[in-house]
Amino acid sequence: MAGPVKAPVPKLVDVARWLWITSACLGMLRFLEQLFDREMLVAEVRRQNPAMGQDEIDAGVNGGVLFGLLLAVTLVIAYTRLANAMARGRNWARIVLTVLGGASVAFGLFRLTAWASGVAAQVGVEMRPVDLAVTAVTTVLDATAIVLMYRASAHFRKQAAVDSALRPS
């Protein structure tokens, strides 16, 4: 007996898949770069909790770094799985990626606008050039991936038709 019929993945959908994965990996790398700035993390904990001893600060920073690593890996795996499900024609994955990507684009545009207008500096938010560059790149990647997913809508209709034909009545 033959396995399930797979609709071929259109080029636009395949490119969108890799844009999602690339964007997630870039975001993770930026997050990891910030996470491994131990001096900044210790200074921030010390600023927020001046009564804490060095052992408590070290333990808190270590726990935060471990949690951050787990979170970063989990998010990249989740984006990769969603992008692969979307490429297989799963409309629900396309919708989830659209919502997540739309939020990412909105947040990225907000950050870039706050920096360009000087509002971020006025409220004391420091935005390093690397952060700005990664924000700009991931915003463009996410917006492009969303557009490409919807340019190939027929792929999702075809896969839905294949899935419904394979379901027992």
Task: Provide tags for this entry.
about 170 residues, mainly alpha
Care to describe what's here?
By secondary structure, this protein is mostly helical. It has 7 helices and no strands. Helix 1 runs antiparallel to helix 3, helix 1 packs antiparallel against helix 6 and helix 3 packs across helix 4. The model has no long low-confidence stretch (mean pLDDT 87).
Tell me about the largest β-sheet: none
Percent strand: under 5%
**Low-confidence segments:** none
Q: Can you give the mean pLDDT? A: 87
The succession of helices and strands, N to C, reads HHHHHHH
Helix content bin: over 70%
**Apparent shape:** elongated
Layout of helices and strands:
Elements: H1 11-35, H2 38-48, H3 54-87, H4 91-117, H5 119-122, H6 129-151, H7 153-166
Structure summarized in a few sentences:
The protein has 169 residues and is mainly alpha-helical.
